[in-house]
Amino acid sequence: LAGLGVLSVAIWTMVDRYQYVTLLASLTYPIIVYFLLSAGALVILVAFMGCYSVLKENRILLVFYIFLLVLIFLIEAMVGILAYIYEENVQTELQMNLNNTFLTTYKIDHDKTMAVDFLQENIENHYDRTAFL
User: Fold this and answer.
1) Where is the signal peptide (predicted)?
2) pTM, two decimal places
């Protein structure tokens, strides 16, 4: 279930928030998302392997299962720490690069144009909703 949860968060991030990636200059955000996706898929595979190794009472597979669990924990901890650290940098990076994107690539680069339009629509919808609160 934890693997499905991590995989779901990674997929949601890719589907719902990935349009902002083209506005960022660094590759940290996509790398974090792909690590999260990999960790979620790996947890699911390792869970099945653990069930199989217990069913067959295979000690070598059980040791390998424990090793993979530790590896997955370290990957998820690294992704969590990177996401926490990078969360503060996203706002600054967007502010620094957004003006440059408007001036140099808007209506020239289709992906960046779509990302800027998506950002403007979401900010406008966010402020419309909060005006009634």
Assistant:
1) none
2) 0.58
